[in-house]
Design a protein that fits this description.
The protein has two domains: 195 residues, Quinone Oxidoreductase, Chain A, domain 1 (Alpha-Beta Complex); 130 residues, Rossmann fold (3-Layer(aba) Sandwich), CATH 3.40.50.720. The radius of gyration is 20 Å and the shape is globular. The protein is an alpha/beta fold. Helices cover 25% and strands 26% of the residues. A hairpin with an 8-residue loop joins strand 1 and strand 2. The protein binds NADP nicotinamide-adenine-dinucleotide phosphate and zinc ion. NADP nicotinamide-adenine-dinucleotide phosphate (NAP) binds next to helix 1 and helix 5.
Length: 351
C-alpha cells in the first residue's frame, strides 16, 4: 500500500483538512498517477455538505484530475510512464451492461464507480478523489490530455468540460443556433466556450451584473441579467436550446418560457427540487431534459475538440490549504471561473 497525503472532510459540512489515505500498487491493468492539478467542482461542495444524501465519510473529493503516469501494471498497453493524463468523475463501471457497451459508462446499470464518494468494484472499498497526491486507476478509465493545453486549465475539462460538451452534442446544437447558458460559473463558462466554438450564437443568463464583460470575452454574443425586471418578458421564445448550470434552487418555469416552439432546456445543475408547471412545456411543445457528464469515448472526443480549438478553463490556481475559502467563494458565485488546486502545495506540506 502507498501511504498518500490528501485533504478530507470527516463529516457532513465539516471543513476539509489534512488526511492520509492508502493507494494500492497498480495491478496488471492499472496505472499509478502523480496528481498535478485538481479542479474544484460545485458537486464537491454539494457532496461534502451531503446535500444529495448518502455521502460517505471521510470524503476526499476531486474529480477533475490531471497528472503524470509514474508506474504501469505488467499488462498495461495504452499508457507509458511520463504520459500526461486525466481522470474524470468515474474510475470504473461494469463494462457489460447496455450503457457501458454503448460507451455511456456514466449510466452503467450497476452504477458507475465514482472517483470519490463511491466504492471500488468490490462495493466496499471507498474511493478517494483528486485532493491527494496520487491515484491508482484502471487503464481503460484514463484520458489523454492534448499536449498543447496548459495543465491547470485542462483539469476542469474532465468534469465541467464534458458535462457541457455532451448535451450540446447529444441534442444536436448546430452552428447558428440560439443558445442560452444559465449561470456563469465553472460549468457555465465552459458551456459558453464550447458552444461558441461549435458555432452557436450564445447568450449568458446570469444573476451577477459584474460578469457581463467576462461573458462577452469568453465568447458569448450577448448577456442577459436575470435580475432585471423585464428580462423574462422581453426575451420570451428567444432560444432554441438552454443549458441550465445553476447550482442553487431557481424557477425552471421562468426559463422554459424563454424557449422557442420545440426548444429544449437541459438541466446539468443539481440543486434542491423545485416545482414544474406543465404549461411551461405544453404551450410551445418544449422539452426539458437532463444530462450527466459523459462516457469515456465522448470525454476523449471533447478533450481532442478542446485541443483543436485551444479551449481550457479560466482558472484561479490555489494551494490546497485554501480549499475551504474557495468553497465559500463558490457559494457566493464568486468564482472566475474555476478553482484548481496545485497539488505541489500538498506534496510540500506533507514533506
Ligand atoms: P459554480 O461554479 O458554483 O457555478 C454555479 C453558477 O450558478 C454560479 O456561478 C451562478 O452564476 C449561478 N448561481 C448560483 N447561485 C444562484 C442563485 N441563487 N440564483 C441564480 N443563479 C445562481 O458551480 P459548477 O461547478 O458550475 O456546478 C453547477 C451545478 O452543476 C452544480 O449543481 C453541480 O453539482 C452540477 N454539476 C452537474 C454535473 C452533471 O453531470 N450533470 C456535473 C458537474 C456539476 P451567475 O453568477 O452567473 O448567476
Ligand atoms: Zn464535477
Amino acid at each position: 500500500m502507498l501511504r498518500t497525503p490528501a485533504y478530507a472532510a470527516d463529516k457532513a459540512g465539516a471543513p476539509l483538512k489534512p488526511y492520509s489515505i492508502e493507494r494500492r500498487e497498480p495491478g496488471p491493468h492499472e496505472v499509478l498517477i502523480d496528481i498535478l492539478y485538481c479542479g474544484i467542482c460545485h458537486s464537491d461542495v454539494h457532496q461534502v455538505r451531503d446535500e444529495w444524501g448518502g455521502s460517505i465519510f471521510p470524503m476526499v473529493p476531486g474529480h477533475e484530475i490531471v497528472g503524470r503516469v509514474t508506474e504501469t501494471g505488467a499488462q498495461v498497453k495504452k499508457w507509458q510512464v511520463g504520459d500526461t493524463v486525466g481522470i474524470g468523475c468515474f474510475v470504473d463501471s461494469c463494462r457489460t451492461c447496455e450503457a457501458c457497451r454503448s460507451g455511456e459508462e456514466q449510466f452503467c446499470e450497476e452504477g458507475m464507480n465514482a472517483t470519490y464518494n463511491g466504492y471500488e468494484r468490490d462495493r466496499k472499498t471507498p474511493t478517494y478523489g483528486g485532493y491527494s497526491t496520487r491515484i491508482t486507476v484502471n487503464e481503460d478509465y484514463v484520458l489523454r490530455i492534448p499536449p498543447n493545453l496548459p495543465l491547470p486549465g485542462a483539469a476542469p475539462l474532465l468534469c465541467a468540460g464534458i458535462t457541457t460538451y455532451s448535451p450540446l452534442r447529444h441534442f444536436g446544437v448546430m452552428p447558428g443556433a440560439k443558445v442560452g447558458v444559465i449561470g456563469l460559473g465553472g460549468l457555465g463558462h465552459m458551456g459558453v466556450k464550447i458552444a461558441s466554438a461549435m458555432g452557436a450564437h450564445v447568450t449568458v443568463l446570469s444573476h451577477s451584473p459584474a460578469k457581463m464583460d467576462d461573458a462577452l470575452r469568453l465568447g458569448a454574443a450577448d448577456f442577459l441579467l436575470t435580475a432585471e425586471q423585464n428580462a423574462f418578458k422581453e426575451n420570451a421564445r428567444r432560444f432554441d436550446f438552454i443549458l441550465d448550470t445553476v447550482s442553487a434552487k431557481h424557477n425552471y418555469n421562468a426559463y422554459l418560457n424563454l424557449l422557442k416552439r420545440d426548444g429544449t432546456m437541459v438541466l446539468v445543475g443539481i440543486p434542491e427540487p423545485t416545482t414544474l408547471s406543465a404549461g411551461s412545456l405544453v404551450m410551445q411543445r418544449r422539452r426539458l431534459a437532463g444530462s450527466l457528464i459523459g462516457g469515456i469515448r465522448e470525454t476523449q472526443e471533447m478533450l481532442d475538440f478542446c485541443g483543436e480549438h485551444g479551449i481550457v478553463a479560466d482558472v484561479e490556481v490555489i494551494p490546497i490549504d485554501r480549499i475551504n475559502e474557495a468553497y465559500e467563494r463558490m457559494l457566493r458565485s464568486d468564482v472566475r471561473y474555476r478553482f484548481v488546486i496545485d497539488l505541489a502545495s500538498l506534496k510540500k506540506e506533507a514533506a
